Amino acid sequence: SCHCVRSERLLSLSFCFFCCIAMNENCASPDPPKGAWMIPRRSFTVDEDPTSGSPQYELRLLPTLAAELEGSGESTDGPSCSPRFESSFGMFGKEKIIIVMVGLPARGKTFTARRLHRYLSWLGVATAVFNVGNYRRKLFGAEKSSDFFDHGNEEGVRLRQEAAQAALQDVIVWMDQGGQIAIYDATNSTKQRRAWIRDMILSNPSTKNHQVIFMETVCDDPDVIKHNIREVKLNSPDYLHSDPEAAVRDFVERIRQYERCYVSVTEDEGPFIRVENLGQRMMVSRITGYMPSRVVTFMMHVHTLPRKIYLTRHGESIFNVENRIGGDSDLSVNGRSFARELAAFCAKLDESDRPATVFTSTLKRSRNTGQHLSGLCKILEWKALDEIDAGLCDGLTYKEVESTMPDEFQARNEDKLSYRYPRGESYEDLIQRLEMIILELERRRENILVVGHQAVCRALYAYFMDEPISQVPHIEMPLHTVLELSPKAYRCDLKKHVLNVPTWSQK
């Protein structure tokens, strides 16, 4: 049987399909065809409602393997990096992968690279993006005209090759120093350039055994291309002081320069993933391994349609009043008031902003917070949204933990991210558990309200706001507050709505 099938619907069947390929396990899924196969975006999905039951996880006591790798995030000065830890599933430390982006300008390469970086970093995979355009601007200055990108311009070709080589050398160095996945972001529009990249990687002693995967983004929708040019490219340093209309004309000409020599990736070049029109269709060729299969699964869920995701903790519970950890207590008087106010808040929203679906956990305080929304929204319960499992500390106060288990109390204070409650979970475990929720939130097109718990909301918030994973246990997540997240192509907008319901601590 396939280990990725749980008693609760964890992932789309596509994940099951690719896990079987990656892990060489038997499954009810049919044998994949050889070579490349076409995957319609929604081919491997199941019913919208999760089934009842509890997922079976294999959580192992594995220590953190490496210190955090600090990087420059969205900076244009170099690669963007993520901290690293080995997950509870113990699979993140075994594969070294270099993803080489391919595609014409304004086709979504950088969007795809950044979304992958955010997802993998949130999972705790040491990931970095190396954007060749940033290297070119740093080495030779910005505001280059389209003539610079003419393949007949020998000087331009030489300088762009230097920038590409500098970026690739940094990829190799970074991977050798502990990186696990590098994303090399550039047009890489010819077979010769891609062969050079592959040869540079595989001929280097430190990276000769790494996987090289080409990820090509293709778009033939003129409206999407036009939108990308005006909303993204005109804000780049290349056109900082240019007239907008003149900048559009110049960038369109730059695209034509690349179109003259562009050759799509073919099977003889090695493993590749082709994403067409922002995920309407995908082509996957010769992809094997656990992490590559997860990358494919993630890309099958990503879209750019506008929607809102609302995050809120459950209303104040009896255990909140008593300062107790975990448990399954009901709402306090204030918590029940918040549940009614939350329903009124959603009812007052414009129809385009109103949540169509509410996700709750299976715990009483979450379910009862969402109960008044049943006439307004569809409500789905998810076991995966349950609060972090406090194990033997469940139901205790922190003072009781300090007095009865001082070593545990001290260990938690020293490293809240990796600390695992005895017979319970750590934040790292929780993040792995929430991956299915992230994929579902990425897949869905409608507005969603998540009625979660403190640790759960912290982890989900960190994903969408691209917060460093080390900060997840320290994110402020007050009671009786609704966070309105609006994911965009390169950012996520945030609004806070504090509902007028006091908590016991405010009295």
Q: What would you call the shape?
A: globular
Please state the structural category.
alpha/beta
Strand order of the largest sheet: 1-8-7-6-3-5-4-2
Distance from first to last alpha carbon: 54 Å
Q: Could you give a short account of the major beta sheet?
A: 8 strands, mixed
Radius of gyration: 24 Å
Uncertain runs are: 1-78, 81-91
From N to C, what is the helix and strand string?
A: HEEEHEHHEHEHHEEHEHHEHEHHHEHEE
What is the mean predicted local confidence, pLDDT?
84
| Helicity range | 25-40%
Number of strands: 14
**Strand portion, in percent?**
5-15%
With helices defined by DSSP (H or I, 4 residues minimum), what is the helix count? Answer: 15
Task: Write up this protein.
With 507 residues, this protein is an alpha/beta fold. The protein is built from 15 helices and 14 strands. The strands form two sheets. An eight-stranded mixed β-sheet has the order 1-8-7-6-3-5-4-2, with helices on both faces. Helices cover 35% and strands 14% of the residues.
Question: What are the SSEs and their pairings?
Answer:
Layout: H1 13-23, E1 36-40, E2 80-81, E3 97-102, H2 109-123, E4 127-131, H3 132-140, H4 154-176, E5 181-185, H5 191-202, E6 211-218, H6 222-231, H7 244-259, E7 272-276, E8 281-285, H8 290-301, E9 309-313, H9 318-321, H10 333-348, E10 357-360, H11 364-370, E11 378-381, H12 398-404, H13 406-414, H14 427-443, E12 448-452, H15 454-464, E13 481-487, E14 492-498
Parallel strand pairs: 3-5, 3-6, 4-5, 6-7, 9-12, 10-11, 10-12
Antiparallel strand pairs: 1-8, 2-4, 7-8, 9-13, 13-14
